[in-house]
Amino acid sequence: MQAAPCLLNGRHGAKSVLHESFLEIALMPTPHEIAIAGVYLPPMLVAAFLGIITTALSVRLISHYRLSNYFAFPSVVFLALTVIYTVFFGTFIIGA
Fold first, then answer.
1. pLDDT in tens, 15-43
2. Which pTM value belongs to this model?
3. What does DSSP assign to residue 46?
């Protein structure tokens, strides 16, 4: 009597179920460039542009409510928010 093929480690010539599901997740298509009006742009450039725009809006709100008085270096806060927003957009929204 032959043993049933093991689907977890790929013995007896059976393909691994875990390996196949990992490959499906790992090989999901990611954009290599983004076409805007026929111009191809790298996704990180688009993420940086969205990060700068979002940072500008955030800094205007922070300045409007006078919260910038609590920062020692507001320009460093602007730079830090730009990096945070760019990484957020690049990782979760665009997938760069």
1. 555 555 555 555 556 667 888 898 999 99
2. 0.66
3. H
